[in-house]
Amino acid sequence: MSWRQVMEIPTYWHRQTASEPFFKDVVWSKPETKAHSGKLLVVGGNKHSLTAPGIAYAAATRAGAGTVRVLLPDSVRKTIGKSFDEGEFAPSNPSGSFSKNALGQILDCADWADATLLAGDFGRNSETAVLLEQVVEKYSGNLAISQDSLDYFVGDIGKLTDKDNIVIVASLSQLQKMTRAGMSSVIVQHSMSLQALAGLLNSWSRETKIKILVYHSGNLIYADGGQISTTPAAELQNWEVPLAACVAVWWMQQPKQRFEAVTTAIYDYLAYTTS
Fold it and tell me: How many domains does the chain have?
């Protein structure tokens, strides 16, 4: 990189490489024992799919969570049986998704946890939509949101961007829907350059409380409080849920260094998936 190119990189932009973490102190301070590694709650699934919570559980365990509990709708109780000790069940509705009666149990489990992940596979259900809105409204702990749990909010993204305790892990298509719903006068496009999207996310994250991680132009991009980190990554498939789990783990272990923790979680995820 030339001297001129270095000078043109904005001070808010932190460029991490896939081979070396940008924030080495976060890696060095990672807890070494399970007792100090945090408690994570994963919520997701419906009677037609348990893929997202299963992937999230595996990814969080690999990332070093001390304890992981998975809350599923009770419509899958017979499917799961006693084969998954970490699984717990909350009330479901006739369609097999979480019902509004699950709110109390979700919040009780979230109070136990150091962080909560809405992993996905909630399905499309109006009752579940109301439930997730109430969870977001009432929960004040560290909350990561991925996959179709984010779809419930893209039309009214202010319910997420007005809160300081939420990290969104979004596909570029979901980000486009947010901009089309009025989040910005600029519509995100697949043809947008990395520099243009980084600048746009810098502005959004300064003007609102949005904290968002997205993949575009061969980079994982994280925006938080006007800071941007980018990490080069080869073409990714089905990355949102496992990376969201990794983000939740690193963030709960470094709660006072969210930007640094999420950026390091990206490095950790890529180091594992490309090794």
Answer: 1
Taking the C-alpha atoms of residue 67 and residue 236, their distance in angstroms, rounded to an integer, is 28
- Walk across the sheet containing 142-145 and list its strands: 13-15, 227-232, 219-224, 211-216, 166-170, 142-145, 115-120, 39-44, 67-73, 87-90
Q: Give Cα 24 to chain centroid, integer Å.
A: 22
Residue-wise pLDDT for 179-211, tens only, equals 887 666 778 888 999 999 999 999 999 999 999
Task: Work out the burial of residue 35: count CB atoms within 10 Å of its CB; fewer than 13 is exposed, 13-18 middle, 19 or more buried.
Answer: exposed
Q: What is the DSSP string of 186-212?
A: SPP-TT--HHHHHHHHHHHHHHS--EE
Give a yes or no: residue 64 inside a domain: yes
- Assign residue 244 the CATH number of its domain: 3.40.1190.20
CA dihedral 158, 94, 82, 49 (to 10 degrees): -60
Range of the domain at 66: 32-192+240-256
The reply to whether 219 falls in a domain is no
pTM given for the model: 0.93
Let me know if residue 181 belongs to a domain.
yes
The answer to whether residue 99 sits within a structural domain is yes
Q: Are 201 and 175 in contact (CB under 8 A)?
A: no
